[in-house]
Structures are given as C-alpha cells and as structure tokens.
TrEMBL record:
<keyword id="KW-0808">Transferase</keyword>
<dbReference type="InterPro" id="IPR003661">
    <property type="entry name" value="HisK_dim/P_dom"/>
</dbReference>
<keyword id="KW-0902">Two-component regulatory system</keyword>
<dbReference type="InterPro" id="IPR000014">
    <property type="entry name" value="PAS"/>
</dbReference>
<keyword id="KW-0547">Nucleotide-binding</keyword>
<dbReference type="InterPro" id="IPR035965">
    <property type="entry name" value="PAS-like_dom_sf"/>
</dbReference>
<dbReference type="InterPro" id="IPR013656">
    <property type="entry name" value="PAS_4"/>
</dbReference>
<feature type="domain" description="Signal transduction histidine kinase dimerisation/phosphoacceptor">
    <location>
        <begin position="203"/>
        <end position="268"/>
    </location>
</feature>
<protein>
    <recommendedName>
        <fullName>histidine kinase</fullName>
        <ecNumber>2.7.13.3</ecNumber>
    </recommendedName>
</protein>
<keyword id="KW-0418">Kinase</keyword>
<dbReference type="Pfam" id="PF00512">
    <property type="entry name" value="HisKA"/>
</dbReference>
<dbReference type="GO" id="GO:0005524">
    <property type="term" value="F:ATP binding"/>
</dbReference>
<dbReference type="GO" id="GO:0000155">
    <property type="term" value="F:phosphorelay sensor kinase activity"/>
</dbReference>
<dbReference type="InterPro" id="IPR036097">
    <property type="entry name" value="HisK_dim/P_sf"/>
</dbReference>
<keyword id="KW-0067">ATP-binding</keyword>
<dbReference type="Pfam" id="PF08448">
    <property type="entry name" value="PAS_4"/>
</dbReference>
Length: 286
C-alpha cells in the first residue's frame, strides 16, 4: 500500500472520530435542551396550576364581595329610614331607595357623584349649607354627631328630621367620609307642640276662670251702684260721668265674658320682647 492510502485512511479515521465527537456533543446538547424544555414545561404547568388556584380564589372572593354588597344594598333598602353616605369631599357615594325617592325625588344614579350644592332644585341652598356646617362639626369631633334640621322632601313639603352622622374611616383610621341615617320627627314635634299648647291653654283657662270669678261679684256691685247713681242724677251735670262709668263696667264685663270663652292659646306682642294672651283671637269661634 502506498503512503497516499495510509494518509487517506488516517484522514478518514480522523474525520470519522471528529464527526463522532461532534455527534456526541450534539446529542448532549439536544439532551440538555430536552431537559430544559421539560423543566420549563413543568414550571409552566406548575404556574398554570397556581394561577388557576389563584384565579379560583379571586373569583370566590369577588363572588363573596358581590354577595356582601348585595346584602348591604338589600339591608339599606329594607330599613325605612333615609340613608346616604358621602366621601371626604362631600360627594354622594350611595344612598337607599327611601332617600332617593322620598327625600330627593331622583333615581340613585342621578344622585351618586353629586354634591348637595349641585342639586339646588332638590336641596335648597340654605339647607345644603346647614348640612355642610353640621358635617364639619362631626369632623371636628371626630365621632358621632346628631342634629335636627328641616328637610325639603320630594313632594316640596319641609319636614323635621333628626340626622345621625358617623364618620367613615379609611385603612389608616383617617376620616374618609360620612354616613347619615335620618329619622322623621315631624309628627313627634307636632305632637309636642300640641301638648305644649294644651298645657298653656289649660294654664290660661285656670287663670281666666279665677280672674272671672273674682271680678264678677265686684262688677255686679258696681253695676248696681251705677244704676242707682244714674237714677238719682238724672238731669244732673254729673250724669255723663255716670254713663261713662257704666260703659267701662260693660267693657269689663265683655272682657270677662271673652276670658270665659277662651278656646285656644293665642298671643300677641306687647312692650319690648314680651308676649301676652290675645283675648280676642283666643276667644274667637273657629
């Protein structure tokens, strides 16, 4: 064999060895790549499973939150008292149907996002300003605050309401708004006024009865004496004075008759800041 043959054989062997080496290296790379792909695939499955679990938990939490909000909405709309709540800027963030329908006269979606000052045709400016002052008092107290105030209802009638305000706190216990529950005091206040009027009337009637009882006998005596004087002074220059005296006695008798006929408590202004019983109005027939 010639030397060229051996050279070719050596080269062929070397080429085969190099090819085998490259093939083994390629196989190792492919193996490592497969391992990496398997690991990535496993991690992907683990992450997908974790994501699915997290998603399921989120959906459960969202469902619980929706159910809770639905419960709170149902609860608010079941309570017969008007209820609303505002944020720290005084903007309505929610209310129940009673407040929307009977107080403001609008649907809730037309109230939420508005301040009372932005609803002047529903909440007069003087009342909106009064409510704002009371809310500032609540903020200064940093706690529960109650006050009475008139409210213009959806029917245009102003009624007396008790406002119970409480602050709403954020996650850092800082004021973040307020919630208010209203109670209609109109009938209660009217009953209280009627009771006071009745008590005052009873006092007036007792006083009037005592005055009339004490004055009737002296008036009868005076009336008798003036009649005698009138008869004896007929044609005398003093007779006109007797007639004037008789007229004043008749006037006093008219006053006592009106006192006995008092049926309601009516007063009128007198000197200074004093008020006295208006006998004429108090005894008028309705």
């Amino acid at each position: 064999m010639t030397i060229e043959f051996w050279i070719l054989l050596v080269l062929a062997s070397a080429a085969g060895a190099w090819g085998g080496y490259q093939l083994r290296r390629q196989r190792k790379r492919v193996h490592k790549l497969k391992q990496s792909l398997l690991e990535i695939n496993q991690h992907t499955h683990e992450r997908e499973a974790s994501y699915a679990e997290d998603k399921a938990r989120w959906e459960q939490t969202e469902e619980k939150l929706r159910n809770f909000l639905q419960l709170m909405d149902t609860l608010m709309n079941t309570i017969p008292n008007p209820i609303y709540f505002k944020d720290a800027k005084g903007v309505y963030q929610g209310c129940n149907k009673v407040f929307a329908k009977k107080i403001v006269g609008l649907t809730r979606d037309r109230i939420v996002g508005k301040r009372p000052q932005e609803l002047p045709d529903r909440i007069p400016a003087d009342l909106a300003a009064a409510y704002q002052r009371e809310e500032h008092k609540m903020a200064d107290k940093a706690g529960f605050h109650a006050f009475e105030s008139p409210v213009q209802c959806a029917d245009g009638v102003r009624r007396d309401f008790l406002f119970n305000l409480a602050p709403v706190l954020d996650g850092h216990d800082k004021p973040d708004g307020s919630v208010a529950v209203l109670s209609d005091l109109t009938e209660k206040n009217r009953a209280a006024r009627n009771r006071i009027q009745k008590e005052r009337l009873e006092g007036v009637l007792e006083t009037a009865g005592a005055v009339c009882h004490e004055l009737n006998q002296p008036l009868q005596a005076l009336s008798g004496y003036t009649e005698l004087m009138a008869m004896q002074l007929e044609g005398h220059d003093a007779r006109p004075y007797v007639d004037n005296l008789t007229a004043q006695i008749d006037r006093m008798r008219d006053i006592t008759d009106k006192l006995q006929g008092v049926t309601r408590y009516e007063t009128k202004d007198y000197a200074g800041n004093t008020r006295i019983i208006d006998i004429h109005k108090a005894s008028e027939k309705e």
